[in-house]
Amino acid sequence: MASIRAAVLPAVGAPLEITGVELPEPGPGQVRVRLAAAGVCHSDLSLSNGTMRVPVPAVLGHEGAGTVVSVGAGVTHVAPGDDVVLNWAPSCGSCHACSLGEVWLCANALVGAGQVYARRSSDGTELYPGLNVAAFAEETVVAAGCVLPAPAGIPLTDAALLGCAVLTGYGAVHHSARVRPGESVAVFGVGGVGLAAIQAARIAGASTVVAVDVSLEKESLAREVGATEYVVSSEHTAREIRGLTGKQGVDVAVECVGRAVTIRTAWESTRRGGRTTVVGIGGKDQQVSFNALEIFHWGRTLAGCVYGNSDPSRDLPVLAEHVRAGRLDLGALVTERIALEGIPAAFENMVAGKGGRAVVVF
């Protein structure tokens, strides 16, 4: 048992507390990791405010990379000293979704999130690992399936982004929407995932990439990674996008916000027969409505997308090759590098629509 510092969510809606945590040694099938960096994802905000449910008190953070400190019995694919990327949604390999090869829909992926993994140093309170990996901490203990060998030649402080933002954004474009060379794409929401999706659209050979956000200040971020057009969100967004595409609309829209009005606008921004992929996680109160006639007339497709419909073990080497070849710039997603104490301010920036990805560097 060793004491480390972590950001603890004491209750849903409560402020994070930076406090000491007693972390046990890894048991059978577990790995202890010293974090190098952890990205602050919108899903962490959704967990903290109750949009998504999580057992509490919990240590949040699910996008991270670090170095193996020790391993439990039966762990053979990594060893102490190995650099790893955290995988918050390990597939069980035996449920119905896994048998279909749809590992991103694994029914047992989040079993670990409901199991106590550590205790608060001050009073022994049991703590849960938010989304399995509890990356908002100096160290963590995770199931062996939650660690993947880090790609060679990529700094861990950048590789952390591969664990969620990049797998999600890249996968939304390549696995869900299946963007083809020459197609036009609109990406709604220029945060970490949106910036990854813009780059993925460029890599896929999209002819036009329209970035959409509420903030004019994000235009330079979007254009630096491949956006050819930029639209500040308004009630006329769909009309503006059609105007940029010969009055037809884009072939593909990728929604990274999770709000009903944005999902509806993304759908309306596509051409007849266009495809909309929804990546953003919205609350139950975000109701999207369509009438039967317009569904028939427009012939559009609307699809959900979980974790970019990605298989991390398959896709991580592909992403790494894009990074090493200079096609994918991980650093361009990061607009702020912070300490654990900076996470609450990073949450506030998300709510205000500011910046790309904030990364906690240990």
What is the residue-mean pLDDT, rounded to a whole number?
96
- Oligomeric description of these chains: single chain
Rg value: 20 Å
Number of strands: 18
Helix/strand structural class: alpha/beta
Q: Give the CA-CA distance, first to last residue.
A: 20 Å
**Proportion of β residues?**
25-35%
Number of helices: 11
Stretches where pLDDT falls below 50 for ≥5 residues? none
How helical, in percent, are the residues?
25-40%
Instruction: Give the SSE order as H and E letters.
Output: EEEHEEEHEEEEHHEHEHEHEHEHEHEHE
Largest sheet: 7 strands, mixed
Shape: globular
Describe this protein's structure:
With 362 residues, the protein is α/β, with parallel strands linked by helices. The protein contains eleven helices and 18 strands. It has helices at 42-49, 96-99, 156-159, 165-176, 192-204, 219-224, 237-244, 260-268, 292-298, 312-324, 343-352, and strands at residues 2-9, 17-23, 30-40, 58-59, 63-71, 83-86, 118-120, 126-129, 139-143, 147-149, 184-188, 208-213, 229-232, 250-255, 270-278, 301-304, 334-338, 357-361. The strands form three sheets. Strands 3, 5, 6, 9, 10, 17 and 18 form a seven-stranded mixed β-sheet that branches. The longest helix is centred in the middle third of the chain and has 13 residues, at 192-204. The chain is globular and about 65 Å long. The mean pLDDT is 96.
